[in-house]
Amino acid sequence: MNNNVSIIKVSKKNAEDLRKLAITTFWESHGHSATPKDINAYINAKFTLESIEAELSDESNVFHFIYVNEELAGYSKIIYNTAYENLTQPNSTKLERLYVLEKFHDHKIGKQLMDFNLDLAKNNAQTGIWLYVWIENHRAVRFYKNYGFQQIAETDFQISQRHSNPNWILSLEFDRM
Question: Which of 20, 33, 34, 94 is the most buried (most CB within 10 A)?
Answer without folding.
Answer: 94
